[in-house]
Write a structure and sequence with these properties.
With about 325 residues, this protein is α/β, with parallel strands linked by helices. The protein contains nine helices and nine strands. The chain starts with a strand and ends in an 18-residue tail after the last helix.
Length: about 325
């Protein structure tokens, strides 16, 4: 059976208890939306919500809030994500051990899951983001054989801190010392671990040139209307691959995602791509309400609450219940 995962911000929260003694006090861990007010200065108000504040920042052309969000997540990956990946008893290590050939669709920007999969030998950046990506292994690396193909893929539907797209080419200088920019019909992707590159060892970042993008420019900001950004060329590539994965899935497990109505343009292509009758299992503190709401909007699918939290599902051994006509999916899909 093919089990696919759909992840939201709540998926990362269990990693925050992996805090080690050398973690600075100012590092708070993986945030939820309610924790992001610190990304803004005192000129912003939050009566309409965090997403509206990010939208206001975009209208002001103020890069600081998204830059602060980026820094927060890079720090969380370094101090908490890596600790969770290196702890064989963490929920994340146990999840990837239980589902060694599953694919993950995520609305998160971080690399928490990739760290765990890479440590388990199930993921590499050259194809693990769901698209071919430029990444290198240094010629002197001889510690152990390097796998160049991923068993699991992690598709970041709102952008990744560690992947960016080259959307144009730059020619060499001609006789008049001019260089010409040519837009690419399809983007090419580049892996870049930024300050966390050492956690992706032995893989190094791709070649950097004038097409390089800072991590803060690789993200679809958490604004109410993400539809215009989702329509961009490089995001369309990721979504196309995600729909292909959805179309062959026998079960979708959503962890820590609220399916907010403002986020409908983000999740509708995924749910709409699932085969008719596919079980969609919700792991969330609001799993019953979410299941009932989605059942009205997507009557061809079978929505069920699975667990109130990622921790609770892990305590049950990541078990997926049987469904009539589908047999036992079991803990390993």
């Amino acid at each position: 059976m093919s089990v696919t995962f759909l992840l939201g911000a709540g998926f990362c929260l269990a990693a925050n208890r992996e805090r080690s003694s050398d973690t600075p006090n100012y590092v708070r861990g993986y945030p939820l939306a309610a924790d992001l007010r610190s990304c803004f200065d005192s000129s912003y108000r939050f009566e309409a919500g965090i997403e509206e504040a990010f939208a206001e920042a975009e209208s002001r052309r103020d890069p600081k809030p998204v830059g602060s969000l980026t820094d927060t997540l890079l720090e969380a990956d370094h101090y908490f994500g890596w600790a969770a990946a290196t702890n064989a008893n963490s929920l994340y290590s146990k999840l990837v051990e239980a589902y060694k050939t599953s694919n993950f669709l995520t609305f998160n920007y971080d690399g928490l899951l990739e760290f765990s999969l890479l440590r388990a030998g199930l993921w590499v950046p050259t194809d693990g983001f769901g698209v071919p990506a430029e990444a290198t292994v240094p010629g002197y690396y001889v510690v152990r054989p390097v796998t160049h193909s991923s068993a699991c893929r992690v598709l970041h539907l709102h952008g990744s801190l560690y992947l960016y797209a080259r959307q144009f080419d730059v020619s060499a200088e001609d006789k008049s010392h001019m260089r010409w920019i040519t837009l690419r019909e399809t983007p090419e992707f580049v892996f870049d671990g930024d300050q966390n590159t050492h956690h992706f060892s032995p893989f190094e970042k791709g070649h950097q040139d004038e097409r390089y993008q800072l991590p803060s420019r690789r993200l679809i900001a958490p604004v109410p209307d993400k539809a215009p950004a989702i329509a961009q060329g490089f995001v369309r590539e990721i979504y196309q691959r995600a729909r292909e994965i959805a179309s062959i899935s026998n079960c979708l497990v959503s962890i820590g995602y609220s399916f907010s109505t403002t986020d409908t343009p983000s999740f509708r292509p995924i749910l709409g791509g699932l085969p008719r009758g596919t079980p969609v299992l919700i792991v969330s503190g609001e799993s019953t309400e979410i299941s009932q709401r989605l059942a009205r909007d997507f009557p061809a699918l079978h929505f069920e609450p699975l667990a109130p939290s990622f921790e609770a599902w892990g305590a049950d051994g990541f078990r997926i219940p049987d469904f009539p006509g589908r047999g036992a999916l079991g803990a390993h899909g």
